[in-house]
Amino acid sequence: MKRHRVTNQYSGRVQGVGFRYTVRTLTHGFEVTGTVRNLEDGRVELLVEGAKEELEAFLDAIRQSDVGQFIRQEQACWSEAKNEFCGFEITH
Known about the structure:
Helix content is 23%, strand content 41%.
């Protein structure tokens, strides 16, 4: 299975609404690894690796979750996985 990486930056009202914690909770239903963190400019950055189909389903689950309503824009950048994550965590 070829692994991919997606760096997704979310803008909108994505800080202070439990966005990062919801994303971390959603990872339990997917085979993905990575991090999620707040950026100083008010956006949230998600850096996640896994099979492409799994990543696409995971990103869709975020959009369909309770915090999806706060997303105004997403900017995704796809690349090959670097396999540098063991699990998933919230970073600062």
